Amino acid sequence: MALTVNPLSPNEYTEVHRQGGREAAKTTITPFSDVLKKEKEQVEKASASSAQQTQAASRVERPSDGIAVTNGTAGTVSADGSLTTTLDDIFKRASEKYGVSYEYLVAVAKAESDFNPNCVSSAGAKGIMQIMPEEAKGLGIQDVFDAEQNIMGAAKLLAAHLEKFNGDTTLAAAAYNAGSGRVKQYGGVPPFKETQNYVKKIAAYMKEGVKVPNKTVTVTPNKLSGDITKSQRKAGTTVPTAAAGSQGQPVNAVPATEEELNKSMVIVGSGDQAVKMTYGAYMRYLELGNLGVG
Length: 294
Description:
3-stranded antiparallel β-sheet; 10 strands; single chain; alpha+beta; about 290 residues
């Protein structure tokens, strides 16, 4: 069953009815601005006593946190602005520009599409990093199948999630999959089988050191890429690292009482402008502006 959300209103509440198991489950989609206000108060109260310690322990210099350091692209830039390079070159520059660990970024790509630039999911997510259409618009991606723009946009979104969750890669991955509103709602990885398996995949891929396929692509960098001809690392810049004690611990979540997150579909808009996406992607879509990635 799909929900039509039209128009989007800051004070509008929409109910989603889904059939699952022996009885119908009912949830309420709350506008992200309302969720953020309530959850922010709870989070600030819970973390006030340890905020200074967390901040000091969660930031280190870029080179020691797996951030790639480049001298610009290793590819060839044509007169029309197109770039012929390797996928690995793109991941390294995205890591450097947005301050996201190279190994982390590569692990997410492996989990999302197995490095397939033309991948399209049943929910409509597209490209190497499986970006939803409305996410692409908010992130500044002009061509979602362009590997450069797709990876850069995903790195930008992951950087925002890492900032929100004090550098915790597990929670950032959960937010990338299910939306940060859900992560805040459950106080950790949401109790959805897909999301719990997803974060385990990311951790496993990082541990085994997944390699980017040796593949050459021709792409069209846009403003997401910045200056591709030179290094964009700034001396002294710090980035968040994983919060102590969070990664690798068992997920203590209650069993889900509703259908898995990505089995519930939402339709945003109407007519020719309608876009179908998963509930999780819808929540991520609502929060893009609040993350500062629009």
